[in-house]
Amino acid sequence: MRISLRIICVSLFLIFSNITSFSQPSVHEPPRLVVGIMVDGLQQKHIDKLWNYFDINGLKKIIEQGASCENVHYNIISAGNASDIANVMTGSTSYFNGIVGNCYYNVEKSDIQSIINDISQIGIGTKLTVSAHNLLSSTVMDEVILANPNKSKGYAVAINAEDAVILGGHTAKSVAWIDDESMRWVATGYYGDGLSRWADEMNIKGEFKEITSHPWIPLYPINTYLTSPAHNESRYGFLYDSRNKKNKNSPNAILKSTPNANSLVASLGLKIISEEQLGTDKYPDMIMLQFTVRTPNEKTYALQSAEKEDMYLRLDKEIQTLLQKIDLKVGLDKTLLFMFGNQTALHSPTELGENKIPAGYFNANRSMALLSTYLMAIYGQERWIDGYYAKNIYLNKKKIDEKKINIREMQQNIADFMLEFEGIQSAFTSGQLLNLGINDNNVIERIRNSTNKKCAGDIMLTLMPGWIEIDDKNNSVGESNAFLSYTPVCFYGWQIKAQKIATSYQTIDIAPTISRILNISMPNASIGKPIEGLLK
Questions:
Q1: Using alpha carbons only, what angle is made at residue 142 by residues 200 and 155, rounded to the nearest 5 degrees?
Q2: Which of 45, 217, 483, 515 suits a disulfide with 522, CB 3.0-4.6 Å?
Q3: What angle, rounded to 10 degrees, do the helices at 81-90 and 510-518 form?
């Protein structure tokens, strides 16, 4: 039987077509919902210590069944949650994204202001007028929205205003944060939906106040905890009312450092996911949630109180509920969840000092007074120092120009003088840092990374190991002074394989990784690289 050449050619074509189609990798559908979890105060050593106490469906599920990145560090100096969050969300440093900390020194007004302060906006339920206008680059949430205009949606729910705004970036439909003076959700008119309907509903119907009214007592019998309570109470072990004031002179309550704050965030987050139908179509949506493991008036960052343990154990329950309900509404196989913490020192200066390890708290008031006297002795009786904040010294440039003084010489004299103070490790002029190119000195580069030309002082300081800066109210200005500050980072859900990634990465690599998974553009100032082990 003769077979025509045409039949043979057609047969060969079909065979090779099938071989080719089988050899091509299947195209994965990107996640429909991205859930970011930022935990204020999260530490790997705390997780390790409490591992056997966690539920298998909470934090353990994320860590064991997801990709746990064990060697991720920040490449900026700790200056508050805002700069840490911006570092993660933009895939870039303060040098490019403009967020140098929770606050900055406004040179034009000679005043310390919140990094999100914006008098052109209106507050919703609050006197705060804030926006993301000082965030100079896009975030991964912004890129999700830009990739699918009027289709993808973004939200942020947080405990603090700075955290909420930086998590929400420029394009979120709405952000909300806790006002612990008025006891309600509040927001800013900067975002399209202002205060979301669901946050407003929690305020009006009393769910916010109902959650805050729950007394905080141990989740389990007090004798099952590893450590004793910081403030013992005879009946339960410890007892706190989250509505109590921080102190008699404060209008704010302790709410933000109790489990009730986490319950509020989880409740509103789940309402938004459900009612806004996030993750239910082909256009990816994103929601960022901020939790905490802080305790009221804690003096150490270590896991040394039953209250601290209880914060973790109750957060574990909140995350368990979050995962269960997201699975029901969206499906965990269609959801990408990532979790990270901020920069937190392993030990406080107080704890180190009690153990005879050199450490201390640096308050600039005394040093600035002595510096002013020193400059007057050299250059005359004038106000040469305009201001100080967060290891940045700002000079009175108008007066320096008027007196025709060599500013570079003055800067160097100040830098040399500041090295004499206890706790000061090094001092650099702004020119030394801002004009720095690629440098093998990681310490200098990390300082440069943490600086932005809009907020940079004329002289910048670094502190010795174990030292932390505090302001006039004894609040810390950044909490970690470690050379490398690590944070737990986990990815879970979607098509993430269970694995431990030991390769060294930086927090700026998180946003590029999410962008790669979603097949969208990276944030426009991103200098990070995708976590390759996660994408294999």
A1: 20
A2: 515
A3: 40
Taking only the tens place, the pLDDT of each residue in 368-399 is: 999 999 999 999 999 999 999 999 999 999 99
User: Would you call 373 helix, strand, or coil by DSSP?
Assistant: helix
Weakest-pLDDT range from 138-147, 306-315, 413-422, 441-450: 441-450
Contacts of 127 (CB under 8 A, 6+ apart): none
Q: Which residues of 492-511 are buried (b: 16+ CB within 10 A; e: fewer)?
A: bbbebeeeebeeebbbbbbb
Exposed e or buried b per residue across 298-332, where buried means at least 16 C-beta atoms within 10 angstroms of its C-beta: bebbbbbbbbbbbbbbbbbbbbbebbeebeebbbb
Asked if residues 361 and 467 have their Cβ atoms less than 8 Å apart, the reply is yes
Q: Any bridge partners for residue 72, and if so which?
A: 505
Q: Top-level CATH class of 33-72+134-338?
A: alpha beta
- Pick from 478, 353, 409: which is nearest to 103 by CA? 478
| CATH of span 360-469 | 3.30.1360.150
CA–CA dist 476, 80 (Å, integer): 9
For a pLDDT cut of 70, what percent of the chain falls above it?
A: 94
Chain centroid to CA 170: 16
Q: At what angle do helices 510-518 and 140-147 cross, to 10 degrees?
A: 20
The domain locations on the chain are 33-72+134-338, 360-469
Structure tokens at 14: 């079909």
Locate 32 and state its tokens: 């429909």
Map tokens 């003084």 to a residue.
405
pTM for this one? Answer: 0.92
Collapse the DSSP code of 530 into the 3-class scheme (helix H, G, I; strand E, B; otherwise coil) and give the result.
Answer: coil
DSSP per residue, 13-31 = HHHHHHHHHHHSPPPPPPP
Q: Are 427 and 444 in contact (CB under 8 A)?
A: no
In the sheet where 505-506 sits, what is the strand order?
Answer: 485-486, 72-74, 505-506
Query: Is the sign of the CA dihedral 66, 70, 74, 75 positive or negative?
Result: negative
